[in-house]
Automatic annotation (TrEMBL):
Belongs to the iron/ascorbate-dependent oxidoreductase family. PROSITE patterns: FE2OG_OXY (PS51471). Gene3D superfamilies: B-lactam Antibiotic, Isopenicillin N Synthase, Chain. One of its GO terms (molecular function) is dioxygenase activity. Residues 164-266 form the Fe2OG dioxygenase domain. Pfam families: 2OG-FeII_Oxy, DIOX_N. It comes from Sphenostylis stenocarpa. Probable 2-oxoglutarate-dependent dioxygenase that may be involved in glucosinolates biosynthesis. May play a role in the production of aliphatic glucosinolates. Keywords: Dioxygenase, Iron, Metal-binding, Oxidoreductase. This is Fe2OG dioxygenase domain-containing protein. The keyword Zinc-finger does not apply. It comes from the Eukaryota.
Amino acid sequence: MMGSQTQSQLHVVDFTDATMKPGTDAWLSACTLVRSALEDNGCFVARYDSIGKDLCDSVVSAIEQLFSLPLETKRQKTCDKPFHGYLGQVSWIPLFESLGIDDPLTLQGCQKFTHIMWPQGNHRFCESINEYAKLLAELDHMAKRMVFESYGVDIKGCERMIKSSDYLLRCIKYRTPEMDEKDTGLDSHTDLTIVSIVHQLNHLNGLEIKLKDEEWIGVDASSSLFVVMAGDALNVWSNGRIRPCEHRVTMNAKKTRYSMGLFSFSGDKNMQIPDELVNEQHPLLYKPIFDHYDYLRFYDKEKIKEPYSRIKAYCGISALY
Ligand SMILES: O=C(O)CCC(=O)C(=O)O
Ligand SMILES: [Fe+2]
């Protein structure tokens, strides 16, 4: 639970407080907390109860149904973007399997994916996934507003970032390891996203975060706890101030584990580092214009694992001053 050993070192931001609206003291102190959490560890835990248990339960059954489809069905191409499709049957992470739903915030996006998986239709899948993704996106938007506000960056830039973002809902399954298998669900990595929100959907722990002091800690699973993580693109946007969150999954559960990730990418080819984030103490670290899909293709080609080396190799500049 909340105060347990494992999680106590992560910052927890409470979004269940209905009085926490922009401009209030509660909002301002949450902004400060979000900024230090992202600068320290690249993530925070959001307590957020808008999704509710019933919707969670419907999403769990929707996802079980999805993964029980034949492999040839799951492997179909659903989208042209890099890293948006089926991932699984990978020799070094044999427990992991995942499907991405592109544009899940619109009903059309969900319908398109549903139709490819179930040509005969699956209304319940489509509706519950769309509902779930939209609620997750509200958390994504609030978190981004808090980031902009905490740095004093013009909030119009945040509206632009949100409007021009592409969203991907990743549905993830981990089977239990067999006797001779390791418990690695997913190796240590940072996401290539702007922000990723991870939900341990069927209440099974496994997600671990690397803190700034290099210590790994587990995050407790609950229907109302979400991990908001900075991806590589937010590190670039923040001119290096926000750490991209290093995380991994250890499959310690005795049952199949399902998790969901709402990933955001900049659909605008020209994501810019705000002027407010560049000054004498923080000289420009990266080329100021970032093309997110080009970065994904770069990663696909170069496969550089270490996040800072990867970001620097893609868009780093040597000190200008
Ligand atoms: O399953 C999880 O808890 C995390 C998944 C993850 O890190 C990813 O898909 O990038
Ligand atoms: Fe990840």
